[in-house]
UniProtKB/TrEMBL annotation:
Sequence ranges assigned to domain HIT in this UniProt record: 9-118
Origin species: Saccharopolyspora taberi
PANTHER family named among the record's database cross-references: HISTIDINE TRIAD HIT PROTEIN (PTHR23089)
Protein name: Histidine triad nucleotide-binding protein
Organismal lineage: Bacteria, Bacillati, Actinomycetota, Actinomycetes, Pseudonocardiales
Position of sequence motif Histidine triad motif: 102-106
InterPro entries linked: Histidine_triad_CS, Histidine_triad_HIT, HIT-like, HIT-like_sf
Domain of life: Bacteria
Length: 123
C-alpha cells in the first residue's frame, strides 16, 4: 500500500467500504478493534475527519480531541478495564511509529502495561 492508500484506510472504514469491528460511534468519531492487537483490549478511536496527527488535531479542533478521549474512556468502562487501568496513546509521525497519517487514539488495556519505557507485550 502507498501512504495515500494507508491514509484513506480509515476514511474507507468510516464509509463502510472496508469492514471493521466497530465498538462505538458518534457523529464525529468511530472506534474499531485493532486488527493486530498489542493488548487484550486494543481499540482505535478515530475522528471521521482526517487530521494528519495529534498535534494537528489539537491545533485545529481541540473539542474533537477531547471527544476522542471521552469516547475512549467510555469504551474502557464497557470493556471492564476502567478500574484496573488502561493506556491512551497517540503515535505522532514516523519516528514514533505512526504508519497511518490519519490521527487515531489507541486504547490499550486488559493486562499490566508496565512503566513508561515498557509497553504492551512488544515494548
Amino acid at each position: 500500500m502507498t501512504d495515500s492508500d494507508l491514509d484513506n484506510l480509515f476514511l474507507r472504514i468510516v464509509a463502510r467500504e472496508i469492514p471493521a469491528d466497530i465498538v462505538a460511534e458518534t457523529e464525529r468519531v468511530i472506534a474499531i478493534r485493532d486488527i493486530n492487537p498489542q493488548a487484550p483490549t486494543h481499540v482505535l478511536v478515530i475522528p471521521k475527519t482526517r487530521y494528519r496527527n495529534a498535534a494537528e488535531l489539537a491545533a485545529k479542533d481541540p473539542d474533537l480531541l477531547a471527544e476522542l478521549i471521552r469516547v475512549a474512556s467510555e469504551i474502557a468502562g464497557q470493556e471492564g478495564i476502567a478500574d484496573s487501568g488502561y493506556r491512551l496513546l497517540f503515535n505522532t509521525n514516523s519516528d514514533a511509529g505512526q504508519t497511518i497519517f490519519h490521527v487515531h487514539l489507541h486504547l490499550l488495556g486488559g493486562e499490566p502495561m508496565g512503566g513508561l519505557t515498557g509497553g504492551p507485550r512488544h515494548g
